[in-house]
Amino acid sequence: MAHAHDLADALAALDAHYQAMPPVATMGLAVAGYDGARLRLHAPLARHVNDKGCAFGGSLVSLMTLAGWGLVTLRLHDAGIDADVFVADSEVRYLQPLFADLAAEAELDEGVDWDAALADLRGRGRMRVALVARVRLPDGVVAAQAHARFVAVAKG
Amino acid sequence: MAHAHDLADALAALDAHYQAMPPVATMGLAVAGYDGARLRLHAPLARHVNDKGCAFGGSLVSLMTLAGWGLVTLRLHDAGIDADVFVADSEVRYLQPLFADLAAEAELDEGVDWDAALADLRGRGRMRVALVARVRLPDGVVAAQAHARFVAVAKG
Questions:
Q1: Do residue B26 and residue A21 have CB atoms under 8 angstroms apart?
Q2: Chain B residue at shortest CA distance from A95
Q3: Which chain A residues touch B50 with a CB distance below 8 Å?
Q4: B2 class by beta-carbon count within 10 Å (0-12 exposed, 13-18 middle, 19+ buried)
Q5: Helices marked H in B20-143 — which ranges?
Q6: CA distances to A66, A99, A113, B37, B124 from A136, in Å
Q7: Residue A5 pLDDT > 90, yes or no?
Q8: Which residues contact A8 (CB under 8 A, 6 or more apart)?
Q9: Domain map of chain B by residue range?
Q10: For a surface tag, which of A19, B50, B80, B151 has the fewest beta carbons within 10 Å of its beta carbon?
């Protein structure tokens, strides 16, 4: 985990990276926090409301995908590695309608050996890692959950 | 399958339904066709481009989810049933980067008995149905694929 000002710089860079993508710029997304293990993103319900007055499923997936992508990007930054990060696949469950602002969190899935993944990336130029991302209701109940695999490919 | 002008009305109503959702209104989505079995949606790459110049994964899922939701909605309209339609879960595979406009298609998954699902909805007020949605490259190769379950709940 980097120093506080390095962390602030890394989160500012991540936010700039998000906002530079046209489909993300319209989401009203904000980086809400990163503790070295879990990245949290927020977005206002008003931008993501569906025909039933709750959060659109596509928006939930987008926010969870961006949280996962951001988590891998930040962890690679912490490790001093410059890589392109791609989502490879995901399983999503929509469990509860969300009638509040969107808050997504992403972390490594249980049992993931991050150091082994980093060794793959350093040795072979490529890694694959499993994450879990969730959107919770204001009371903490999980509204949507995604298990996703991301691939990172070393640059240059 | 309804008469041609009924079909045009149904597609216009579906498009209006899509455009009324703020996160969808920003997507530049257009209904490209419906033949009674397969719904096709388009969206311009410029609205959905990521940091690597190709289509953002969240946009691909959103478009496939909207195609699936629209397919169920149209098929229920064809059957004369008014119901709320929800996505329940999905498995998504991102197979190829897409550097062109987005074209998604959704249809019932193999082996789905639509008449049995309709009987559930009419008899118990609720049905669950499995769909497959795909986004293809301009040459027809599948760029992303989603297997998704949707739930419909009868209104009133």
A1: no
A2: B88
A3: 21, 23
A4: middle
A5: 22-25, 57-78, 114-124
A6: 16, 11, 26, 35, 30
A7: no
A8: none
A9: 4-154
A10: B80
Inter-chain residue contact B57 with A87, CB threshold 8 Å: yes
The residue-averaged pLDDT of A52-79 equals 96
Compute the distance between CA of residue B36 and CA of residue B76 in angstroms, rounded to an integer.
11
Cβ-contact A66, B58 below 8 angstroms: yes
Which residues make beta-bridge pairs with A89?
Answer: A149, B93
B19–chain A nearest CA distance, Å: 10
Write down the ipTM of this complex: 0.92
Q: Is the pLDDT of residue B1 over 60?
A: no
Domain A4-154 sits in CATH at 3.10.129.10
**In this predicted model, what pLDDT tens digit does every residue of A119-152 receive, in sequence order?**
999 999 999 999 999 999 999 999 999 999 999 9
Amino acid identity for residue B132 in this structure: V
Q: How confident is the model at residue B3 (pLDDT cuts 50, 70, 90)?
A: low
User: How many residue pairs bridge chain A and chain B with CB atoms within 8 Å of each other?
Assistant: 104
DSSP label at residue B134: E
d(CA B154, CA B144): 31
- Reading the block at residue A51, the tokens are 């025909």
pLDDT per position as a tens digit, B19-47 = 999 999 999 999 999 999 999 999 999 99
pTM value? Answer: 0.94
